[in-house]
Specification:
The chain is an alpha/beta fold. It contains 14 helices and 22 strands.
Length: 532
C-alpha cells in the first residue's frame, strides 16, 4: 500500500492510502484538516500543498486558474485535485483550524448508504437550492450529514463526541442528573444543542456552506437522548413501568434551536419520536434503511452502542428490546480504548504465535476501537492466553496483556475484559429473549444486520467465536455502519420513508428485558467467551 508523508508545523505524519482518492480525501481520513471552501470541487483554491517528492501528473484546469506559473514551478498544488498513484512527500501549506469535529466523506458506512429507496419530497420552488440536515444523536457520539434538498445529494458529514459524557458515560446517570432540577435538565439539554450547532458551524466554515440555507433538520436518537434534548419526561425513563410505553419527547420550541444553530429561523426541525422507553427512533431508522421487514422471517438487526438496541422480524411482528451494552463497544471505559478514529487499532490478527494489527488512517497506534477489541479478545481465547471465563493464563503479567510496549503502552487489563463481557452478555440476553418470544432459535436466523460504532469493520467469525453474534453463515451477516443516520437521511429526504416509520410502530412489540424472570441466569451464561 502506498504511503503519504505529510510535513506539518511540528511533526511529520506517515499515512497509508488506497488508489483513487484525492489528497484532500486522504488527509481528511487521517484527521489532518486542510483549508477549503468548495467541498473539494477545486473552485475555492484554498487547499494548498507542496509536492516535495513524488509524481502527481499535470495540473488540472482548476489548478491552472488558481496557481500561477511560479507557484506550479515550486510544486504547489490543490489537495482536492491531486490523486496520487505512488508514494508522496508533501508539505501542508494551508492547514485548517483545529476542530473537535471529524470530517467524514460519506462512504465509510454500508455500501447501500447513499442509495435512496424512496422518492424525494416534492419541493416548492422556494426550497430549491436549500439544504437539509440529518442528525443521529447518540449516547457517546453525535453524527450529522448535510444534503441538497432538491437533488438529495450528500454534501458533507461530521462526527464528534457528545459533550453529555461529562455528566455521565451511561444514560441512567444522565437521566438522574437531569431529573434533579429544571436547571440541571436545561444544562444537559443545552450541551447537546450547542454540540449540534458547533458541528454545523464547522461545516459552514470548512465547506463554504451558508447555514441560512438549511431549511430542514431531522433528528433521531435513543429515547433517553431525545428526552434529555427536549427536556420532556426525563423522570419517566427512571421508572420501569414506563419502559414499554410511548414516551413523548417532542420539544416545545424548535425555533429557538434553529436560531441557536444559525440555520434559517423558520426551518422545519423534526425530532422523530421514539418507539418506547429505551427503544428510540434511531432503531426504527435502522430498520428502514436495512429494509429489515422486507426480508424473510428470521432477520435480526443489532445496533451496538452504549444503549444497544435489537430488532427481530419474524414475518409478522417486529420484536424489539434495548440492552445496556455500556461504552465498551465504542472504545470508552477501556483503559486502552479509543473511538474509531485515526490511531485506533481496528483489526488484530494472530499468526505463528505473534499478534499483528492494522491502524485506522495508517497512523501511529494509540488504542483499540471496538472491532479491534473483539479481535484481540478472540485471539487471546484462541491462543489459550485468556480462558472462556475471561481469566488470563498464569503466563500473563498481573497488570494485563501488553500488545504494544514503548512510549505509550497498550495493555488489556482484567477490568477491560470484564467490561466487555458484561456488554456482550447484555446483547446475548436480548437476542435470546427476542428469539424465545418469537418462538424461534438461533438456527432460524437467516440474516443479521450489524450497525453501530464498529458496524463496518467487525470480524464476523471472531465476534461469533466469543458469543457476540449468533453463529450463522458469515455471508449472511451484513456490516451496515451507521444505519440510524442513513435512515434519518431517508426520512429527511422522502415522505414515503416518514410514513413507513408509523407503519413500523404499528407492527412492533417491545420486550422489557429487566422483567424477564430468567434474566440473571441468561446473563451469567452469556458472560462466557464462547459461541452464543
Amino acid at each position: 500500500m502506498p504511503t503519504l508523508l505529510v510535513q506539518l508545523e511540528a511533526e511529520e505524519r506517515r499515512i497509508s492510502f488506497v488508489f483513487g482518492q484525492s489528497l484532500r480525501h486522504i488527509l481528511d481520513g487521517a484527521d489532518i484538516g486542510v483549508r477549503t471552501g468548495c467541498r473539494g470541487t477545486g473552485a475555492c483554491g484554498l487547499c494548498l500543498v507542496r509536492i516535495e517528492v513524488g509524481e502527481v501528473g499535470e495540473p488540472t484546469f482548476a489548478e491552472s486558474i488558481h496557481l500561477d506559473n511560479a507557484q506550479r514551478a515550486q510544486g504547489m498544488r490543490l489537495a482536492c485535485q491531486v490523486i496520487p498513484q505512488h508514494d508522496l512527500r508533501i508539505t501542508l501549506l494551508s492547514p485548517a483550524p483545529k476542530s473537535a469535529w471529524r470530517r467524514l466523506d460519506g462512504q465509510e458506512a454500508w455500501c447501500g448508504k447513499r442509495c435512496l429507496v424512496f422518492p424525494l419530497r416534492n419541493l416548492s420552488p422556494l426550497v430549491k437550492g436549500s439544504y437539509g440536515v440529518a442528525v443521529d444523536l447518540g449516547t457517546t457520539h453525535i453524527r450529522l450529514s448535510l444534503h441538497d434538498l432538491a437533488s438529495g445529494h450528500w454534501l458533507a458529514e461530521r462526527w464528534g463526541l457528545n459533550p453529555q459524557v461529562t455528566v455521565g458515560s451511561d444514560i441512567i446517570t444522565r437521566l438522574m442528573v437531569a431529573s434533579e432540577s429544571p436547571e440541571q435538565a436545561r444544562i444537559v439539554s443545552q450541551q447537546a444543542v450547542m454540540a449540534i450547532g458547533e458541528a454545523l458551524w464547522d461545516i459552514a466554515i470548512r465547506e463554504g456552506i451558508d447555514l441560512q440555507q438549511v431549511v430542514r433538520l431531522t433528528l433521531v436518537g435513543n429515547t433517553a437522548m431525545l428526552a434529555l434534548l427536549s427536556g420532556q419526561n426525563v423522570g419517566r425513563l427512571l421508572q420501569p413501568d414506563h419502559w414499554v410505553g410511548a414516551i413523548d419527547c417532542a420539544p416545545d420550541d424548535t425555533q429557538a434551536w434553529a436560531i441557536a444553530w444559525g440555520i434559517h429561523p423558520q426551518a422545519v426541525v423534526e425530532v422523530l419520536p421514539p418507539l418506547a422507553g429505551f427503544v428510540g427512533s434511531d432503531l426504527l431508522a435502522g430498520v428502514i434503511t436495512t429494509c429489515l421487514t422486507e426480508h424473510e422471517a428470521g432477520s435480526l438487526l443489532i445496533d451496538f452502542g452504549t444503549n444497544s438496541e435489537i430488532a427481530l422480524w419474524d414475518g409478522q411482528i417486529l420484536w424489539v428490546a434495548s440492552a445496556a451494552g455500556g461504552p465498551a463497544f465504542e472504545g470508552s471505559g477501556i483503559r486502552c480504548g479509543l473511538p474509531a478514529e485515526p490511531g485506533a487499532i481496528y483489526r488484530v490478527t494472530w499468526q505463528n504465535g505473534v499478534f499483528d494489527f492494522t491502524v485506522l488512517a495508517g497512523s501511529e497506534p494509540r488504542g483499540f476501537c471496538g472491532s479491534g477489541l473483539v479481535d484481540l479478545i478472540a485471539g487471546l481465547v484462541r491462543s489459550g492466553q485468556l480462558t472462556r471465563m475471561g481469566r488470563f493464563s498464569p503466563t500473563i503479567p498481573s497488570e494485563g496483556f501488553g500488545l504494544i510496549r514503548g512510549e505509550r503502552d497498550l495493555v488489556l487489563t482484567k477490568r477491560d475484559v470484564d467490561m466487555f463481557q458484561r456488554a456482550k452478555a447484555a446483547i446475548g440476553v436480548g437476542i435470546q429473549v427476542l428469539l424465545a418470544n418469537a418462538g424461534m432459535g438461533c438456527q432460524d436466523l437467516r440474516r443479521i444486520c450489524v450497525s453501530g460504532a464498529f458496524g463496518s469493520s467487525l470480524d464476523v467469525p471472531n465476534a461469533q467465536e466469543i458469543g457476540l453474534l449468533p453463529r450463522i453463515s458469515p455471508d449472511r451477516v451484513e456490516l451496515c455502519g451507521n444505519t440510524a443516520l442513513t435512515g434519518c437521511e431517508e426520512v429527511l429526504l422522502s415522505p414515503v420513508a416518514a410514513r413507513r416509520l408509523q407503519h413500523l410502530k404499528d407492527r412492533a412489540r417491545i420486550i422489557n428485558l429487566s422483567q424477564c424472570s430468567d434474566f440473571d441466569t441468561l446473563f451469567l451464561e452469556n458472560l462466557y467467551l464462547q459461541p452464543l
